[in-house]
Design a protein that fits this description.
By secondary structure, this protein is of the alpha+beta class. The chain is built from eleven helices and nine strands. It folds into two domains: about 5-230; about 235-315, no CATH class.
Length: about 325
Amino acid sequence: MNIFDVLSQGKGRLNEENLSAMLAFLLSPNQSHGLSDIFLRHFLDAIARSCGKDIINDAKPIRADILLESPYSLGKKRRVVDIEIRIFKPTFKQPNNKEELTETHRIAIENKIKAQAASPKQFKEEFEAILKDIEADNQVEVTMVFLTPSSKHKGLFEEYEMLDEDTLGPHKKSWLFWSDETDMDNTVVGLIRGILKKESEAEIPPMMEYLRHTLKAFVLHLLESSKGLITPTAEGYEIAEVAFLEFSKGKYRIERYENSTIRLVNLETQKYESAKPLLRKIIREKKLGVNLHFSSGAEKNTRDLGREVLKRLKQQGKVLEPY
């Protein structure tokens, strides 16, 4: 039995927040897993390989806080970083030689388990919001980590590239994967496997048996659900057009695929919902002037309605900025 598979059955599912929480648990040196900073150190090494700059270069225990869902403000926008690693070094204040911790590095992880979750400006705006937060402290280095399915889907690539070198300045960015058969060194699966192997060869202290089995189950779940993490596009087709909007039901993303399939995502729950009733409600509330029937009297299907709704929303300027 794999508890991760069980929790993903029926109406249950391991979503982005769940996987972020599991990763944050492993990254924290102070959690009950008993790994101390072993996993954190391996994760930071993977980031360093990806971005070409060491983050930790000594064997001293890493002093770090691991934060989930860190909120930031960027003008009127609110940005939330999925996982943050804040690394500190001790400094000693005279005259009583009291220890204080000074932040030296902030690592922000944007976790996406679905390629369709790509939002062009999000990664860049999270970085800009962090810079604003630390603007009075130029000692803090920032590294942005893009953690995604292995597929370099067009939308994911565009979001990652939007945060360019000119914007980064002296700071760094890194792209890591949950699992990728062609490059396991820079994946969560590869890191966990590496730690399990080192433990079996007595290169690191023994793990608790329960932790060892949990890590194996987590790896197997990630591997077996790797297609699910990517969330295959409708019938194998990629997204051709996207729009964000808000109406009485909440905030939604409308997706039109290359084969004209229309899907609507509730951005609060990150779940797909029945498209046609929502499209009708959007037409009424936004006063789009889209007829539900053809001139012949035949009712329009979801694809026809979705195409017209997207067109009218954009023509009338009734879409939201991507987020």
